[in-house]
Structures are given as structure tokens and as C-alpha cells.
Amino acid sequence: MPSFKFPFFLFLSSLFLHSSLAEIVCEDLPHDVCAFSISSSGKRCLLETAVDEDDKVEYQCRTSEVMVERMAEHIESDQCVRACGVDRNAVGISSDSLLEPQFTNKLCAPACSHNCPNIVDLFFNLAAGEGVFLPDLCEAVLINPRRSMAEFMSSSGAAAGPGPIEAELLEGDALASVSAPGPGPDSME
């Protein structure tokens, strides 16, 4: 009498193997999980808008040119999105959000800074692009939130110029400025 246990086991193992080989391709992601996701190739996914033939605005998920070190195949959890105060439907990300005390408080809070390395890495690089070391900004926020915002504005040139450099996640050329070399979020305690 033939045993069906072994063929069933092979079938189940082939399902697990197939699911483990599934790659994250930004263009295949729905727009509600696109932002703050990282493809299998290690590149950040970005949410863009496009206008169709009927002048209707549609969201599209695209692969950026920004490589994320030591992280791939990552879709940010809803828990981290809430803890860090980010908006998954945001088109383009700017360092301007670091000037908002409510946002910075959430980003620097342990619920975000210790549990959500993808989001912290992104804003670490945005802050670095402005000449600000995110762990120092977070420490200043804990000590004196108003003073930390003033220091950030003066160190980034926001008070003197047209505003912080925006890292528009709309165009691949601007994305290269998001990933600044230097220490990553691992140095942030």
C-alpha cells in the first residue's frame, strides 16, 4: 500500500521553498505598503504619482537608486509607521519633517529609534545631508526640544537659505543625496 505522507511532505516543502524565494520588487507592491519598503536588491522603494489619460492621479511604486546597507526584502510594519510618526502615503520625503517637534519626538522615542532601523536609517541619512548627526539631535530633543529645533535650523542653514535640502523621492537623481556615507543607525543608542 503506497504511503501518501512522503509526497505530501514534498508538496509542503516545495511551497515553503517557493515562498522563501519570492522576491520583493517595488513595482509589484501595492501603494499602501510601498513607502519605507526595501526591495530584494536592497534598493529603497518610493511612492510616485502619475496622471493617466483621464487626468486622474494614480500612485505607483518604483525602485529608487538608493541602496540600503545591511537590509533587503523589508516591508515596514504598521507598528513602526505609527511609532515613528511617518506617513506611508507620503510622496517624497524631506528633512523638513525633522523641524517638526512632534515628528522628531516620535522618531527619537525608543519605540521608533530602538525598533525600526529602516526608518531611522532613512532619517539618519536625511539629517546627515543637512550636516546634523541624528543621535545628537535626539539627545537635544530629550533635554530641550525648543533649543534643539533652533540648533537644527541654524546648523542646516534653514534659517539663512531657502530651507533644508529636500530629498525628493520622486526622482532617482535626488535620491543619491539621501544615502550619505558615514555611521548608520547602529551608532544611535
Automatic annotation (TrEMBL):
Pfam families hit by this protein: PAR1 (PF06521)
Signal peptide start-end: 1-22
Keyword list, A-Z: Signal
Chain segments annotated as coiled-coil in the UniProt record: none
InterPro entries for the chain: PAR1
Name the UniProt record assigns to this protein: Seed coat BURP domain protein 1
